[in-house]
Specification:
Strand content: 15-25%
Keywords: Carbohydrate metabolism, Glycosidase, Hydrolase, Signal
Enzyme class: hydrolase
Pfam families: Alpha-amy_C_pro, Alpha-amylase
Strand order of the largest sheet: 1-2-5-12-13-14-15-16
EC number: 3.2.1.1
Protein name: Alpha-amylase
Amino acid sequence: MTAKTFLSTCFRRSAVAFSALTLSLGIQASDLPQIPANQVNNTMYQAFYWDAYPGLWADLPAMAAPLAERGITSMWLPPAAKGMNGTFSVGYDVYDFWDLGEFNQKGTVATRYGTRQQLDQALAALDNLGVQAYFDVVFNHRMGADAQENIPGFGLAWTEYHLQGRSVHYTQQNWGYLWHDFDWNWTAFNGSDGNLYPGKWWGNTYHFPYLMGEDVDYNRFEVQQEMKAWGEWVINDVGFSGFRMDAIAHVDTDFTRDWINHVQWATTEDVFFVAEAWVSDINGYLDAVDTPHLRAFDFNLREEFVALSSGNKDMRWWGGLVNSPHRDRAVTFVDNHDTSRAGNPYGMPQVINYKNQAYAYILLREHGVPTVFARDYDEFGMAPTLDKLIEARRYFAYGPGHEYAGNTEAVYAYVREGLSTAPGTGLVMLMSGRNWGGQQLFSINSHQPNTTFYDYTGNVSGTITTNAQGVGNFPVNMTESTGWSVWVPQSTGSAPNTITLRMTKDVGYGYSLFFTGGDSALTNWGAGIEGTWTPGNVWEVTIPDPGNFEWKTRRGPVGGSGQDWESGSNHNQNNLHPSFNGGF
């Protein structure tokens, strides 16, 4: 299957999954809370991963439409500038900043992702969907020089760049005081292969100064001015709304501050800037750059998700930028194209287990802009579960947030109060970090008195009604596979129409398991309702949701009503797949 075919198939399947979700939960658009447009949560989607989606610009409108419907409001796109290897470049080996698939350079007009015209069409489509686009800018270096130069006191180096795109777009007529007549030759760079060129210095960098390629000299005034012009062009002319700043801790900090402040000054748009600062002290990096416009990816929080994946994390304690004084400047994520890449070339510890729980954590909390990763969404098949969490953020995750004081080593709970101006908002989120089986119940203040909640994810059936103080007993499954629940207020028509009772029991050949209980759908403790066998000797029956009720199972010959009773106490609506009590 080609990448394009795979993409198309994934998003057709996702659209079907969304329709099934709304149907199964009995939700119509009118039943969901109405959030004022200026208050809708920003949820970012990383629309690529390494070596994925050639021809992305043409496919982007079809990709974005169902995601926007779920609640995605912004997309981090791959580097759009021409790379040194043309269509074989994923974009991080940037050659010409001003060539976005417009000029015949490096053996091609188009980049890996398409032509400038296709990019323009994709950006227009995103704008129509209300989705912002963020440019992945690689300031640190350039690659793919057109000729070698003999640098005095150094020797030969590949440092002469011809840059046809630059010569067309970066002109004196277009840029006035920002234009400077200089060549991108060795004087525009600090050094290569870790070696400084004569008369140069690395600059004021927060992380080690040399990373790769020809290291751009941001001490040079002319370079600074051109990059300011380019930033204005990308926002005001090309139509992007922000920047993901690649490897930016290796770039001169003073330049980074000045460039961000200039680009924001030069536009009426509220530009989104996020740093990929892969450093231990992300707070320290933000303080060093010292501009309120800059956010940063929360690599420290991802380390918590690595611990969660082990199944041994203490769920009471969480670190990361999002739990620091700079919490409002955190961009949270579970994985990206570097941490989750085929073959794991960087040797990164992986987040494999409890990944839905990790997404629940970043998507539903008050602080941080969360990122959904395309590889998780499509290649790893997480779309059905992520769709529900994205929607829960879009419609319910509003108002002040509170960590539950009773969190345990095994379970984390978090409450959002909701907005008084948007009835139906607010939630109670629980997630388990252990695969023990069964359920655990927690008495939690939802901050919404006398309100009936249901689990938007569908992982736990039934409803919970809070008391006059807003307190209710909220359950969560103690499993890796379904151990996350997002309890949201029930509005007319929004609660699940049905629930499914399950019991695991081998009843022997010729027999069935029957369900009975205190509701008319379960014959009011009369004859049992014959269950359906599923793999693993799991029997199940689906009934209209009766709210609060008790039930039990019986065994009997196939086609009957059940004769032999399960022993022990009755089960209730808070545990729809309990352990068998014994008997028979």
